[in-house]
Write a structure and sequence with these properties.
alpha/beta, binds NADP nicotinamide-adenine-dinucleotide phosphate, single chain, about 30% helix
Amino acid sequence: MQTAIIGTGQIGEGIAKKIVKAGHSVLLTNNKGAASLKEKATNLGKLAIPADLKDIVKADVIFLTVRWSHLKQVAKDVPNLQGKILVDVTNPILDDMSYDDLKGKAASEIVQNLFPKTRLVKTLNHYFLKWIDADPKVDDGKRVAFVSGNDIEAKNTVANLLKEFEFKPIDLGDIATGSKLQQAGGALAALNIVSYPA
Ligand SMILES: NC(=O)c1ccc[n+]([C@@H]2O[C@H](COP(=O)([O-])OP(=O)(O)OC[C@H]3O[C@@H](n4cnc5c(N)ncnc54)[C@H](OP(=O)(O)O)[C@@H]3O)[C@@H](O)[C@H]2O)c1
């Protein structure tokens, strides 16, 4: 599976590590361009490839890991992503660390409107970086990763990828209801949950 990261900062790099460990290729992008990502890519290994935003059309699954304040610009900059699976890992947190006023909408509904032709799945945004970076296997249990989305096939693809990362995916339903629970300020946000065998 070809994957890509839009915004290889803290979270993007953390997810890229999981992708590479699972044996998939990942295109790394950021705002500064491919040349600035060479060292990061080298550290991640041969499956990580520095790229420019125009190159992400080669990916089937694209992780969106930019700050909330940068989303509108990114939406203008990306190539045509029609039909691509867009994995929304963002949270509606402004640069002064306050929550954006979403007027009752789910954050991912806003992201979906900015990237209208994509098949959006929300996941991993509910964890701080340390829980994304950590080994998801805890004793004989697995750390839970919530998934929300309206496109069942896209959600299954992301859930299977999360299983390859060794998380236990839990489906919260659609974007309007499920993703609200996992976004910053939601009932399930920031909880470090491990599922153990019965
Ligand atoms: N940090 C956490 O614990 C955490 C946990 C869960 C979710 N999140 C969410 O994850 C998202 C990313 O957070 P972060 O802490 O990883 O942020 P970050 O370290 O600041 O990384 C953001 C990345 O976005 C890139 N970027 C900015 N504008 C861009 C553009 N126009 N095109 C392409 N790339 C662009 C930046 O590129 P440059 O490097 O070139 O500037 C940078 O690589 C946020 O929405 C945050 O709320 C964060």
